[in-house]
Amino acid sequence: MVKAPKPVKVYVGVDVAFDDSGRMRPHVIHWEDGSRYKIDRVLDVRPAPAARAGGQGDRYRIRLLGKETCWETYIFFEHNADCSSQIPGRWFVERKEE
Predict the structure, then answer these.
(1) Cα separation of 78 and 35, whole Å?
(2) Residue 28: which of 44, 43, 17 has the closest Cα?
(3) What's residue 2's pLDDT?
(4) Partners of residue 14 on adjacent β-strands
(5) What is the reported pTM?
(6) Are 87 and 79 spatial neighbours (Cβ–Cβ below 8 Å)?
(7) C-beta atoms surrounding 70 within 10 Å
(8) How far, in Å, CA of 66 to CA of 40, rounded?
(9) 71 forms bridges with which residues in the sheet?
(10) From CA 76, how far away is CA 89, in angstroms rounded?
(11) What are the DSSP E strand ranges found in 1-98?
(12) What is the maximum alpha-carbon separation in the chain?
């Protein structure tokens, strides 16, 4: 019997900007192997759990630009539970792991 890949949470670096109303907009994802993925467009933002890998935060539905194609996916911003911390939170993606 073949086991289905298990989704895991992978923390990634993300370049963000803030608009004049204070909304955070991600622009580039830095993958763990050094690859960079340009975010063409943020399609939706809402509080939501990462249902497959676990975790709670803001779910960003984004469109990424590739060399020959574009695709939609999700990234998540996980808020830091420690309100006194200088780190507001971390970005993660869900990845399937064997």
Answers:
(1) 22
(2) 17
(3) 67
(4) 29
(5) 0.82
(6) no
(7) 11
(8) 10
(9) 64
(10) 10
(11) 6-18, 24-30, 36-49, 56-65, 70-79, 89-97
(12) 54
Neighbours of 30 (CB within 10 A): 14
Task: Quickly count: other Cβ atoms within 10 Å of residue 78's Cβ.
Answer: 17
Which long-range CB contacts under 8 A does 81-89 form with residues at least 24 apart? 89/57
Residue 73's nearest CA partner among 56, 60, 90 is: 60
The structure tokens listed for 60 are 């960003």
Q: CA 27 to CA 41: how far, in whole Å?
A: 8
Type of residue found at 40: D
Contacts of 23 (CB under 8 A, 6+ apart): 45
Closest CA to 39 of 8, 68, 16: 16
Q: What is the pLDDT of residue 18?
A: 93
- Mean pLDDT score, 29-55: 86
| Cα-to-chain-centroid distance, residue 68 | 22
Angstrom CA distances, 23 to 13, 52, 87, stand at: 18, 26, 17
CA distance 76 to 45: 9
